[in-house]
Amino acid sequence: MPIRPLPPLGIYGDLERARDIMRAWQPLDQLPPDTAEIVAKAIAEGIARGRQHGLEMGQCHRAA
């Protein structure tokens, strides 16, 4: 699964939040730094996609 670049909206906050999530998962502490960064970016992408989905749902609700 390729990691796409994150949208500029909230990228730094998403990465920080993703790193916090990773720290909470004990098995991820054993990953090498490069792999851990890939996992953090994947988590941040999920956070960003969730935010985008929520914005789209709100816009559809307002338009209806």
Would you write up a description of this structure?
70% of the residues lie in helices and 0% in strands. It starts with 10 loop residues before the first helix and ends with a helix. It has helices at residues 11-24, 33-63. 11% of the residues are buried.
Return the domain count. 1
> Terminal Cα separation, in Å?
35 Å
Q: Which range does the strand content fall in? A: under 5%
DSSP summary, beta strand count: 0
* Shape estimate: elongated
Rounded average pLDDT: 78
As a percent range, the share of helical residues equals over 70%
Largest sheet: none
Query: Low-confidence runs (pLDDT<50, min 5 residues)?
Result: none
The SSE order reads HH
Class derived from helix and strand content: mainly alpha
